[in-house]
Please model this.
Amino acid sequence: MVLHRVRRWVMPIWKNRFIYLLMLPTLIYFVIFKYGPIWNAQIAFKDFKPLLGVWGSPWAGLEHFKTFISSFYFDRLILNTIIFSVLKIVLGIPLAVVCAIALHETVLARFRTVVQTVIYLPHFLSWVIMFGVLLTLLSPGSGLINDVIRNLGGEPITFLTSPDYFRGVVVLSYIWKETGWSTILYLAALLSINPELYEAAAVDGASHFQRIWNISIPGILQVIVLVTLLRIGSILNAGFNQVFMLYSIPVYSVGDIIDTWVYRQGILQFEFSLATAVGLFKGVIGLVLVLVSNQVAKRVANQSLF
Amino acid sequence: MQNITYREDRMYQIGVAVFLLVILLIIAIPFWRVIVTAFTPLDIYTREGVPFFLPFKDWTPEAFTQLMGHTQFPRAFMNSVIITVSGTALSLALTVPLAYGLSNREIPGHKALMFIILLVFLFNPGLVPSYLLVTKLKLTNSFLAIILPPAVSVYNTLVMMSFFEGLPRELREVARLDGANELQVLWHVILPLSKPILLTIGLFYAVHFWNEFFTPILYLNDNDLLPLPVLLRNILISAQFNEFVEFNAFSSTSVESLKAAGVLITMIPMLIIYPWIQRYFTKGTLVGSVKE
Model:
């Protein structure tokens, strides 16, 4: 009887042993490189001493979290992070929707392909390259935009190092780089709308804008809601690579985000425990936000993100 | 009546085309500016800066010859190639078996495995814990520090898994009945049918490794190991090329041209593979695999 039960348990595992064996190297990789950092994250609750190691360092409780929350940086980092994310969402998504609709509306198939090819491209370039591109536009000496300002009789502006302009540069350069690529999702949704709906509306005498408003927009609303929720779920990811590449000391007050601060504090200043606490704080809030967004998506759009 | 709608349609279509043209120009003009800056000769640059249109007879490849003639640049290019090729190979070698294994939903423990993988997808403990891991494993100053930690993307694994799930189940069942082991099923039955997804995921990985600049800054101290984006970054942020005095010594080109030429050289491999990837996503077949 017992033997029978064991056989019932073990047989399917034994039968599929090669499947487990195939996955084994990747699972070992996961344990080391994905769960190793989670194990190391315990130093957020410790006073990490490199010589004592992660396990041997003495416990410190919530001290580092308290230090961070009561520090001068807390408000600034949270504020900068959220400002970047919110502006990127609020300006980026509507613009992407408008571009996708325009691509869908045009009857010039060749032209559409050309536009698509060009506007997807910046997505594949790194922020180092983007920084180089921005220099040819914004540098006070030879940048195109400053050339224009000079020709109009103005003074050149140091866009990248001026606190008045830095946020604008971050948000607009992000929109320039990523909006084209993000049209791809909306375009796919638009292409899946039944063309007969448009034909019927045209027969009924609906104008182009009525057709967009009553057919196209409802057809992609679900995708818009999903993308917005997904982005809200990762609101604390304000774009580390971008800010790391573009910012400099003069604009820390308006440009420093949680991730860049963690890098400077943790790696450059060796405040391992404090920086880990901040990273963990961000990771936990991020997890909660994603799970909540997912629940909302299930309710609102009847679809889950994962 | 017919005529009015026809004319209105034409006006509408012109409006849409003009809008798209504006968008196209907004994206294209900065690239144009980089190209012109890279090819502007020194005498024109010192006289009038970078012109918007440079007469074709004045274009000079001087900045490119200087960059490629410098020892650091070709070496950084090679480092980037090594990182990209080995990183992509490793990523695929680890992603494919996991995705295939998980596409067998009937195996015991499937849910637990999915949980293990999804948890690290949703929860990121931050930079410092990974940094401590890499230093503890003594991977610093080795390309392994760049290619190992991000080798498997959970997102890419899930996309590939759902592709494998979409293939007819009978194929693997029949192969198993014929006595094939799982490696043979994967290699001879599944993979030949999976070229589009292997290509797409492979290209996503390749783009990631080619563009990576933060982890090399973090983990590589040896100048001989620096990949192209890091060298480019050093060139871009050094206002007068302090570390690159050699360039200035023979200066027959401006610092701005050198920077722009560096940007273009770093972009070239991307531009070469781009039309190739592009075919796949304009068809809309890979919408499920689009990365946010």
User: Anything to note?
Assistant: Chain A has 15 helices and no strands.
